[in-house]
Every structure is written in structure tokens, then in C-alpha cells.
Amino acid sequence: MVESSARVFAWSFRLKDIPKMGFPIIFSMISLPTVSNSCTFTSSLATTPVTMFLRDESGENGVQMISFSLIFSRSDLRIAILNAALCLFVSIFRSKQRQRQFHRCTWMTVFKETWPRFSRPGISMSLVESKDGIQCFTFEHNRDYQQVQFKFLDAVESMDPNNFVVLLQLNPYHIDSLLQLSDVCRIQEDQETARDLIERALYSFECAFHPVFSLTSGTCRLDYCRPENRAFYLVLFKHMIFLEKRGCPRTALEYCKLILSLDPDNDPLCMLLIFDFLCLRCREYTTLIRLYEEWEVHRNLSQLPNFSFSVALSYYHLSQQEDISPVENQQLKQKSNVLLQNALIMFPGALMPLLDLCTVQPDAVVSSHAFFGPSSQIGQPPALLELVSLYVGRCHSLWKEAGLMLWLEENVRKGLKRVDSQDPYLEDCQNKRKQRYQSAPRNIHRHVLMSEIKEATATLPLEVTTQPGMGFDPLPPLDSIVSYIRPERYDLNALKFSALYDTGLLMVAGWLNED
């Protein structure tokens, strides 16, 4: 009987398969003595090394919890075998558990097994102020993270992307290094790696959230003037762009709302310039119209070309729905016509570039008319040209439907009739264009830089394009709040050595020989 039981046990499973098996599977392979109430073991997620669920074969009796020692007391042999197997299993299981790392449950991204082992990089979040239901937070860097940040700035000045790789080998969750290396990979058309680096930075940020910081409440604020907070804005923005390019505009819209909620008054990344595009991409027409109606009074959204055209486009799409009455259809269509004509009269310089990108040739009446001719584009104020170019470069793909082109052509003709008849709205628009678009605020320039739409970047003023571009902090605010200061560096060799010192790559001798 001893030999028979041993053969059964040896045949049932191999030692290398033990870590893949649960206790119920292992014990079911062993011939157990019959229990007086004719019960059998069943697998359960709640099993433990010392207790197990016992269920009646008929399924009528309740679940009881019993001890292994009571079951196996009749057979010393089987106890010895089970004890040996149990000890082996527990030792292997514990060794596996020591190697396994449990990761925090996050909402925005999920930890990937291909990422380096996560340990807190030195970022934390604190509550600065709570007033009138609004909570102001800020990210903070501890002393160790500040030292890594100084090495990162040395790596930036070295102009060598390999130094970012070296820095990330030692500090795999340093945010600015992840941002900068992501830009390098994206320029080299390695989109997968670029996106993965941004997701890793996003995970690091989420692990540092304050317990009361909420992504969905709309009452949490982060001051963009603090450099520690700016990186979070940039990571969210880049993640949003990657989502939209991957065909996830609905998720990208939610990230756009999140970024806007962090500072809706100042809107440091000017998310209103992309909000309409994402709404149209995911067909959230009512969301766009609602925001326009609620914010128009205090934000003058009609003065932005993207909102003027996109709201008209939203009303048009709503009028094409089949589940509305003929009366409602007529009202929506009329509303969309008026809004589109007003947009064309307010921003005449948008029509020809839009038709050009849509590969549509305008008829002679439109192309020869002075209102939509070359003078309408040349005579635009610089800030208006920047906004129009951004809208056309980003949203021209939304106009490539055949039905939309017919609708656009119809309203261009109606708009020209209003121009020829000297509609009072025409003079009002001319005055607004002269007064309100002389210079664009800094957040618009920042948005254009980060969007990388060539039609818009070509219109940036010299004071923006001549500044050194930093992907980890594009066009920082002039009133930045600096919480710690980088120590001065006087020796170029010290710069080089700082980037590689902690890696143990002793390349200093080569630099000394060069000097």
C-alpha cells in the first residue's frame, strides 16, 4: 500500500509544476480516505494552507470550514506524504512571492510587467489650500529627487540623448527624463516606445496622489506656475494626443476635460483649442454645444475660430439625425446655417486654406471675390492667423464628407450675399478683428508648440521660435514659482561626469585625454 500510494503521488504531478498548482488541485490527486458523511473536496479561491472548504456531494448542505489535521488523522503515511508536499509547495510559493511585486490599483494606466521594478521616485503631493469647495494641491520633490533633477538638467545641457537613457537606467521613473526621451523616440518614429514612456510617467504620478485628490470631482486644482506641477499637465496632454491618434477620441476627450478642470480659469495648455475637435471626433455634439452656451458669456468662445466653426458643424450633424421631428430638423438646420455664415464672415481667412487641405477647388465666383481672396489671409492680425491656421490644420479632416462640402458651398454663397448687401454684422466683425487679435497670450503659443501642427507652428512669432525649446517644459510661465534652485556648474567636465557618475561607467579618463 505504501508503494502504491507513493507511485500515485509521484505520477500525479511534477515538482516544477507545483508553483502553478493550487492546494485543491494537488490534494485532489491524492487518494484520500472516505469521510463519514460522504463529502468530497472542491476547489475554492478562499482555500488556505491550514483550512479548506468541504461541500456535500448533493449540494444541499451548507459550506463548512474544517482543518486538515482532522481529515488525515487515520493515515500516518498519507500525513507524511502530504506534509512533505505541503512544505515543498510553501517554500516554493514563498520564494515566488518574494520575487513578485504587488502594484497599486490605478485608474489612468496599468503597471506593465515589462516596466522596471517600481519604487517611489521621490514625488509626493500635498494639499496647499482648501477654500469654497476648491482644493489646491501641489507635487513636491524630496531631496533625492532634486539631485536626480539636477543630473537631468546636466544631461539636457550635454545635448546627448544617450544621457537620458543612462539616467533612466538608475532612475526609471524620473518624470522629466521620461518626457524628454519620449520626444526623442517620437521624432525617431518609435511611437510605441514613446507612448510607453508617457504611460510609465503617468503611473508614477498617480502613485503619488494625495488621498483626497480626485480626478473626477472637478474641484481639485494644480498651479501651473510650479515646475513640479507642470510635468503632470504635460504627461496628461501627451497621453491624450496618443489616445486620439490610436482611435480613442472618447477617452481622449475625458483627459481633455481633466486637464481643463485642473485650472479652468487660466487654462495653461489652452485645452479649449482642442476640446471641440475631440467632441466632433467622438460625436459628442451636445457636449460641445452645452459648453459653448455656458461659457460664451464670460469666455467669449465665439471669438475662437475653432468654436465658431465647430458649433455650427455640431448643429448640422444633429439636424441629420433620424430620430428627430421635421420641425426640430428645420430649426437645427437653420441654426447651423446662420452660425456657419457668421463664422465665415468673422474668419474669412479660414475658407481657402480649408478647401486647399480638403483638395476642393472653389468656383470662380468665390475665388475671385475680394472678401475670400488672398487679401483676407494676408491682412489677418498675427494672433488671428495663428488661431485660424491651428484650426484648419487640425480639423480639416472633419470636413471631407461630401454632404458637408455641399452644405459649406451653400452657406458660402449666402455669406457672400450678406457681404455684398453690407450686412451690419460685417462691420462688427471687422472691428473685432482689428482690436482683439493683435497678440496671442502665452498659453496659445504653448498649445501650438505642443500640438506640432505644421500649419500653426509656421505662424509663431519670432520671440517664441527663437527661444530654446525644451520638451519637458515648453514655454514656461514668466511668473514661475521656484521651490528649489539648481546649484551652479562651472566646469564642463563636471557636467559630463554628473550624467554618468552613478552608473559606474568610468568614461572620465576619455574626456581628460581629449582635453
Automatic annotation (TrEMBL):
<dbReference type="GO" id="GO:1990112">
    <property type="term" value="C:RQC complex"/>
</dbReference>
<protein>
    <recommendedName>
        <fullName>Transcription factor 25 (basic helix-loop-helix)</fullName>
    </recommendedName>
</protein>
<dbReference type="InterPro" id="IPR006994">
    <property type="entry name" value="TCF25/Rqc1"/>
</dbReference>
<dbReference type="InterPro" id="IPR011990">
    <property type="entry name" value="TPR-like_helical_dom_sf"/>
</dbReference>
<dbReference type="Pfam" id="PF04910">
    <property type="entry name" value="Tcf25"/>
</dbReference>
